[in-house]
Specification:
This is Surface layer protein. The chain is mostly beta strands. It has a single domain, classed as YVTN repeat-like/Quinoprotein amine dehydrogenase (Methylamine Dehydrogenase, Chain H), CATH 2.130.10.10. The protein contains one helix and 30 strands. It has a four-stranded antiparallel β-sheet, with no helix packed on it.
Length: 349
């Protein structure tokens, strides 16, 4: 059966960071359905299936992590079916919102925010129905970037690019519960049973650290009961995004090319989607994708992966059974960077 079967009415939404827009594509034909302008510069995207809205994090005024003209404070709420903005939620004085996670049972949205002079980096808790902040959880790190919660909605995990630990937060008490030693971390995903967290590391620094200056690249496997790293799934290069499919596949977006010895800027080379069996912790294969994979999502049945590559401003659609690219979507941009956040939106029931 075709991996496209049964997707009539489903939509893929893709952020263009420099284009300050969200593009919508038919999940069967890959036809562009429309493009919505949003506040500059959007980064991450999350679909709330209960309220059928997209949450879009606007992180910087321009530029990117490590080189930007200042932090923004907004979350944009989008009606994907109508392709219009419903509301812009201002989190000020919090700034630099980026990582998004949703607890649909409790109606709680969690958003990472960067540190300021009077407060450390942390997680803002938002009432997803009222779209109002409920509180803040400290992470004891300046820039928590990505965030994920366990299936029970009791524990959250924030990765910290430049702090040597993953922050573990108690979502019920809204406190920092633990720090798990990881040498700078990127994307993460929590297993369906909540027993393990998969964390990409080390920090990509921004795509420029020479190999001998950094710890070994790989996906750290954290045992949530002991809050310790119990295994490392090796990758050939630094990985940034990590995603778990409903079929139990662990997907990692790996950078490509070697750092220049003089400029220390990474060559623009194709990246790789590396695929593991999450339970067996065994690599199943890899697929070449666009330049600098930054975000990954998958179809609800776990058969298709979508890999947004920010430097090439493309999205690769990958058949995970055959481990091959079915198509590549070009995402409009007005400079660097390009394709960033992704969300798969099933058709209304």
């Amino acid at each position: 059966m075709s991996p496209r079967a049964g997707r009539d009415g489903d939509v893929l939404a893709v952020i263009s960071q420099s284009g300050s827009s969200v593009s919508f594509f038919d999940a069967v034909t890959d036809r562009r359905l429309g493009t919505l302008e949003v506040p500059a510069e959007p980064h991450e995207l999350l679909f709330d299936p209960i309220r059928r809205v997209l949450w879009c994090a606007t992180t910087y005024s321009s530029g990117h992590y490590g080189a930007n003209s200042g932090r923004r404070t907004e979350l944009t709420v989008i009606a994907p079916d109508a392709r219009r903005i419903v509301e812009v939620v201002d989190l000020a004085p919090e700034h630099g919102p980026h990582g998004l996670a949703l607890d649909p049972a409790r109606g709680r949205l969690y958003v990472t925010v960067e540190a300021s002079r009077d407060r450390p980096g942390g997680i803002v808790v938002i009432d997803a129905e009222a779209r109002t902040p409920l509180g803040r959880i400290p992470t004891d790190a300046p820039v928590p970037h990505w965030f994920a919660i366990d299936p029970a909605g009791r524990t959250g995990y924030a990765t910290n690019k430049e702090a040597p630990f993953v922050s573990v937060v108690d979502l019920e008490r809204r406190t920092l519960a633990a720090k798990i030693e990881v040498p700078g971390s990127e994307g993460l995903a929590v297993s369906a049973d909540g027993a393990h967290v998969f964390v990409a590391g080390p920090y990509a620094r921004p795509f420029s650290a020479v190999a001998e200056d950094r710890p070994a690249a790989g996906i750290r496997v954290i045992d949530t009961r002991t809050a310790r790293v119990v295994d490392v799934l090796p990758t050939a290069d630094v990985a940034m995004p990590v995603h778990l499919t409903s079929a139990g596949l662990l997907l990692a977006g790996e950078l490509g090319g070697e750092p220049e010895p003089v400029s220390r800027v990474r060559r623009h080379a194709p990246g790789r989607l590396r695929v593991f069996d999450a339970e067996a912790r065994k690599e199943l294969g890899e697929v070449e994708v666009g330049v600098c994979p930054l975000t990954i999502t998958s179809s609800p049945d776990g058969r298709l992966a979508y890999v947004a590559c920010v430097a090439s401003s493309t999205v690769d659609i990958v058949d995970l059974d055959a481990l091959r690219v079915l198509n590549r979507l070009d995402i409009p941009r007005r400079g660097e960077p390009g394709a960033h956040g992704l969300a798969y939106i099933p058709r209304p029931s």
